[in-house]
Amino acid sequence: MQLETSVAGMEKINYCEVVISTDQEKEDILNILNELEEEFPGLVSDDVKANAGELVAKYQ
Q1: Could you tell me the pTM of the whole model?
Q2: Please, are residues 36 and 28 in contact by the beta-carbon 8 Å criterion?
Q3: Helical ranges in the chain per DSSP H
Q4: Per residue of the chain (60 residues), what is the pLDDT tens digit?
């Protein structure tokens, strides 16, 4: 996907969205993110992993 922005020097940003769903434990989301990171290094940002961890902790 591509996002166009008015920020100087960052007119276009390429990114990929991944939807993660599970009917198991909430921690599975973190496991899936770790598996994605192993398979595709650099795909999952540290911010995404931190946000996912906060959400899992919040809704336990």
Answers
A1: 0.61
A2: no
A3: 27-39, 46-58
A4: 556 666 676 666 667 787 888 777 878 888 888 898 899 888 888 888 898 889 888 877
